[in-house]
């Protein structure tokens, strides 16, 4: 390889940093969504790189469903303390109390859909005109057609038939008052890229990603971790298994998978040999074949 | 770990695929993804189930590339979709563009960042208007490498003559275009001949398989490493206790190589200074080249802001307000002659007026029509614009990053045109 060639991870990093700086330059009040999952941890890391030696010129926002894995929150708070960056937390519970969101009923009421309500309320309240997220195009079919700069109307809706063409590295963030943008700096990364980058950059992750013992229930092929928000159906029972999370989200719908991967190297080997997509364990995507497309149209990430 | 070490040395190749469903494009992409293990079991399950529901025989690989429900219902693709796969040698990003009527807008979008274009030709039918359109767009967008895949060789009994005829037909046509590096590969996407594995049924073909080409084609010189161009994207001023007076100019190197200690000239002010440091989060570096995102500090305190460009004194870009551009129109609202648009170029934003339409291109015949001044959706033409302030540009042929522009409709804020500076 000639000396003036970037490796693909360096090229992806450079692309993401370019997008993050473009957001800081083009928008008046951007915000970065932070869930405590690996993709948002990478985004945070890239944002620190993009504005070094300055601070990140926008706040982070966590939409807290109240159904988080406790490990995620502990990790989040420690990360913010160590780096001194600015995090805002918005609670789904507040939206429920206000009556703008209504809790699902049933055996595992998920607050995943309610996040959209709280997110949109949070964006409106803070008058944020751009929200960055760690979504990737390889995650799901509807995401494969998402832009880096995704235009949303005043209701936060995504219109797949009316997206702006995106050419070269010229990004158009112009909008009317009240409209906003979702921006996805790591669109072109795959799950493997993310893990290799974490290893290469020695990025710390919540312990949930690594193999541990946990009580779980097998529901429709998805293993859900024991928590106060899941009620067992007849015939179901909690069993202790050796598991890890491939994605981290709401406890009620984030499946864990059986795994003995204890280190990043183990995880990379597992990802390389696995035959199931990482969202395959997400009960929220299983609700219908076009579940992601529908949620995105409503304003989900 | 050997596997990880290899992964860190991989290059990235972006390619675009052009052709219609009938050419077997979806089958080809499906095969590349499948053979490189980028299709997962749960995706296959969904495909199988959906295919069954729709009453189709076998698994329809096209469903894999048609992402949105609204598209699946109509059986068409409405947009550029991005796919990913990797082999031990390279990581690939496919910009998969549909072949129907919206082709120009979509293909131009996919082509704008591509290192390579795959053009599919049906071996039974040969070079048709669509092939010519795709080849023209690939040349207009200066995609560095073209792979012409002559597909469905199984349906012409793997006949060498059929392949040779299409090859020479294409060469005759492409001689009129600016295509630098073209490869011809006889394949059968359905049966896998010459896609990943070498075909035993075409001994007469001595070239490489498609996968071998994708993995080995030299992309190191696709970036311009000669003309130093650094558009300032964002000024970093921490104003912190640790860095009270730090003033860094961040951005992406869009051409050439910048080194610590180099003399630079700032445009438009014309002031000169020296590069004091090139900083990254991981520590200072000695040199930076395209497409690295970096942050530079200078020896002197000069007023520099977003949209300015750092260059070498003896190698400067054009700085002009009257510019000729080849444009592809991408919006249903037609271009307005004498109309005003916002123009984006590198990190600059200006306004411009469309002064003249020099000609409109018939992309089927390559005929230049100087009478027809009406430019609408999917039209390609050469126009003259005047900008409110000078842009610092190179011809698109010399540098894709400093030679490209977009036009934005000021009423709708939509991106309405992609332009290549002549």
Secondary structure: elements and pairs:
The complex is a heterodimer of chains A (301) and B (422).
Chain A: H1 8-26, E1 30-33, H2 38-51, E2 60-64, H3 70-83, E3 87-91, H4 92-98, H5 114-125, E4 130-132, E5 149-152, E6 180-183, H6 191-201, E7 212-219, E8 222-225, E9 239-245, E10 255-258, H7 264-273, H8 291-298
Parallel strand pairs in A: 1-2, 1-4, 2-3, 4-6
Antiparallel strand pairs in A: 5-6, 7-8, 7-9, 8-10, 9-10
Chain B: H1 2-8, E1 11-18, H2 25-35, H3 41-53, H4 62-65, H5 69-74, E2 81-86, E3 90-96, H6 103-111, E4 116-122, H7 129-140, E5 145-151, H8 160-174, E6 181-186, H9 210-216, E7 229-231, E8 234-236, E9 248-252, E10 257-259, E11 263-267, E12 272-279, E13 287-289, E14 293-298, E15 309-311, E16 318-329, E17 340-345, E18 348-362, E19 367-369, E20 380-393, E21 404-408, E22 415-421
Parallel strand pairs in B: 1-3, 1-4, 4-5, 5-6
Antiparallel strand pairs in B: 2-3, 7-15, 8-9, 9-14, 10-13, 11-12, 11-15, 12-14, 16-20, 16-22, 17-18, 17-21, 18-19, 18-20, 21-22
Helix pairs in contact in B: 6-7
- Strand arrangement, major sheet of chain B: 7-15-11-12-14-9-8
Order of helices and strands of chain A: HEHEHEHHEEEHEEEEHH
Strand-residue proportion of chain A: 15-25%
Q: State the domain count of chain B.
A: 3
* Main sheet: strands, sense, barrel of chain B: 7 strands, antiparallel
Enter the CATH topology name of the largest domain in chain B: Rossmann fold
Which word captures the global form of chain B? globular
CATH superfamily of the largest domain in chain A: HUPs
Low-pLDDT runs of chain B: none
Morphology call of chain A: globular
Q: Which topology of the largest domain in chain A does CATH recognise?
A: Rossmann fold
| Sheet with the most strands: spatial strand order of chain A | 3-2-1-4-6-5
């Amino acid at each position: 390889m000639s000396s003036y060639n970037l490796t693909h991870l360096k090229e992806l990093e450079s692309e993401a940093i370019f997008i993050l700086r473009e957001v800081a330059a083009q928008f008046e009040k951007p915000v970065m969504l932070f869930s405590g999952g690996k993709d948002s941890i990478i985004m945070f890391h890239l944002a620190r790189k993009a504005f070094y030696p300055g601070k990140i010129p926008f706040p982070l926002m966590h939409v807290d469903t109240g159904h988080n894995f406790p490990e995620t929150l502990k990790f989040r708070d420690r990360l913010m303390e160590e780096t001194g960056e600015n995090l805002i937390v918005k609670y789904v519970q507040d939206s429920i109390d206000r009556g703008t969101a209504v809790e699902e009923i049933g055996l595992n009421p998920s607050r995943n859909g309610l996040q959209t309500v709280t997110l949109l309320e949070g964006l409106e309240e803070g008058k944020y005109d751009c929200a960055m997220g760690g979504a990737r195009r390889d995650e799901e079919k509807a995401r494969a057609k998402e832009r880096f700069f995704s235009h949303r109307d005043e209701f936060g809706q995504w219109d797949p038939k009316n997206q702006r063409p995106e050419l070269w590295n010229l990004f158009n963030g112009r909008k009317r008052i009240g409209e906003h943008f979702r921006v996805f700096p790591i669109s072109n990364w795959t799950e493997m890229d993310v893990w290799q980058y974490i290893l290469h950059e020695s990025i710390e992750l919540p312990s949930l990603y690594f193999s541990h013992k946990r009580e779980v229930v097998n529901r429709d092929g998805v293993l859900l971790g024991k928590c106060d928000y899941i009620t067992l159906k007849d015939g179901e029972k909690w069993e202790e298994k050796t598991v890890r999370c491939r994605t981290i989200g709401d406890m009620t719908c984030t499946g864990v998978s059986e795994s003995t991967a204890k280190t990043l190297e183990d995880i990379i080997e597992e990802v390389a040999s696995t035959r199931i997509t990482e969202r395959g364990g997400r009960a929220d995507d299983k609700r219908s074949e076009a579940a992601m497309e529908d949620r995105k149209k409503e304003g989900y990430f | 770990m050997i596997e990880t070490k290899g992964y860190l040395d991989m290059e990235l190749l972006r390619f675009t695929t052009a052709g219609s469903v009938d050419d077997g494009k979806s089958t080809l992409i499906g095969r590349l993804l499948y053979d490189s293990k980028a299709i997962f079991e749960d995706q296959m399950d969904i495909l199988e189930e959906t295919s069954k529901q729709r009453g189709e025989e076998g698994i329809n690989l096209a469903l894999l590339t048609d992402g949105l429900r609204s598209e699946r219902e109509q059986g068409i693709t409405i947009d550029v979709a991005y796919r990913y796969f990797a082999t031990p040698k390279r990581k690939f990003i496919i910009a998969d563009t549909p072949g129907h009527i919206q082709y120009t807008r979509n293909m131009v979008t996919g082509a704008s960042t591509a290192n390579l274009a795959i053009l599919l030709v049906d071996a039974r039918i040969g070079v048709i208007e669509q092939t010519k359109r795709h080849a023209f767009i690939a040349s207009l967008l200066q995609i560095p490498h073209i792979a012409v895949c002559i597909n469905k060789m199984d349906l012409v009994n793997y006949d060498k003559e059929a392949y040779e005829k299409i090859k020479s037909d294409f060469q005759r046509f492409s001689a009129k275009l600016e295509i630098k590096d073209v490869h011809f590969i006889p394949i059968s996407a359905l049966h896998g001949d010459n896609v990943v594995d070498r075909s035993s049924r075409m001994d007469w073909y001595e070239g490489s398989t498609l996968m071998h080409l994708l993995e080995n084609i030299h992309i190191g010189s696709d970036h311009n490493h000669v003309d130093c161009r650094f558009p300032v994207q964002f000024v970093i001023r921490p104003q912190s206790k640790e860095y009270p007076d730090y003033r860094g100019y961040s951005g992406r190197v869009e051409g050439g190589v910048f080194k610590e200690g180099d003399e630079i000239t700032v445009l438009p002010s014309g002031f000169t200074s020296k590069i004091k440091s090139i900083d990254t989060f991981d520590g200072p570096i000695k040199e930076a080249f395209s497409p690295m995102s970096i942050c530079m500090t200078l020896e002197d305190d000069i007023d520099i802001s977003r949209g300015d460009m750092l260059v070498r004194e003896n190698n400067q870009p054009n700085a002009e307000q009257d510019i000729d551009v080849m444009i592809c129109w991408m919006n249903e609202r037609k271009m307005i002659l004498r109309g005003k648009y916002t123009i984006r170029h590198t990190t600059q934003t200006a306004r411009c007026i469309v002064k003249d339409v020099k000609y409109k291109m018939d992309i089927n015949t390559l005929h230049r029509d100087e009478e027809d001044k009406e430019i609408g959706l999917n039209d390609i033409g050469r126009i003259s614009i005047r900008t409110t302030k000078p842009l610092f540009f190179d011809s698109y042929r010399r540098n894709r990053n400093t030679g490209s522009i977009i036009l934005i409709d000021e009423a709708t804020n939509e991106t309405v045109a992609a332009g290549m500076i002549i």
